[in-house]
Amino acid sequence: MMKKTTFSITIEILRQKIISREWPPGSRIPTLQKISKELAVSVSTVREALRTLESQGNVSIEHGRGMYVRNDPLLLEDPTADLKELGDISLLKLLEARLLIEPKLAALSAEHATRTQVKQLRALADSMVNQMKDGGPFLDTDLSFHHLIAESAQHPVLLRMLESIYPLLSEGRKQTNTLPHMRTKASHYHILIAVAIEERHSEQARQLMHTHISDMIDALKK
């Protein structure tokens, strides 16, 4: 179970790196070890995720030379294409949308998450605290954490709603993570949310997620 969940999240994150052009067409992909450390997943999970992306025509793995993004990646249609027609969506609107969806997902996760998913959530929360202490990037860990909550909630419609704004979320986090104290607060909220889900405290998980996102909204309005 864990393999599939971690695996699907890893594929999604790597695909977003290509869609968002963090990894531009033709560019060399970082080593398996580097990606594994950044995402806090095993090297074998990264290897399999990249093989899947290769079979889908997004990357090319050249033995002895390295791994590259294809110049013509056959990407899935960008799920935000329709949203982009609305013009630039403000970070505030994005956070308000998250406030409507994610507290409910956290509550459902406390009811439905498997033991494996619970352990993985805690590992991601701990990883974010460590990455923050080291001053390293934790953007992907942050996204993985919220995506795993959404997946473990076992509510496919809400999951699809969240995934449809995923590329926008990635961009939004780059901005919210620069707000004063936001990195520290976010990582502590993640630990508390993971513990509430582990203890099956549905209402507490909902409330913590609500406060976590409201906190960012308040900081943004200042």
TrEMBL record:
<dbReference type="Pfam" id="PF07729">
    <property type="entry name" value="FCD"/>
</dbReference>
<keyword id="KW-0804">Transcription</keyword>
<dbReference type="InterPro" id="IPR036388">
    <property type="entry name" value="WH-like_DNA-bd_sf"/>
</dbReference>
<dbReference type="InterPro" id="IPR011711">
    <property type="entry name" value="GntR_C"/>
</dbReference>
<dbReference type="InterPro" id="IPR000524">
    <property type="entry name" value="Tscrpt_reg_HTH_GntR"/>
</dbReference>
<keyword id="KW-0805">Transcription regulation</keyword>
<dbReference type="Pfam" id="PF00392">
    <property type="entry name" value="GntR"/>
</dbReference>
<protein>
    <submittedName>
        <fullName>DNA-binding FadR family transcriptional regulator</fullName>
    </submittedName>
</protein>
<feature type="domain" description="HTH gntR-type">
    <location>
        <begin position="4"/>
        <end position="72"/>
    </location>
</feature>
<keyword id="KW-0238">DNA-binding</keyword>
<dbReference type="GO" id="GO:0003677">
    <property type="term" value="F:DNA binding"/>
</dbReference>
<dbReference type="InterPro" id="IPR036390">
    <property type="entry name" value="WH_DNA-bd_sf"/>
</dbReference>
<dbReference type="GO" id="GO:0003700">
    <property type="term" value="F:DNA-binding transcription factor activity"/>
</dbReference>
<dbReference type="InterPro" id="IPR008920">
    <property type="entry name" value="TF_FadR/GntR_C"/>
</dbReference>
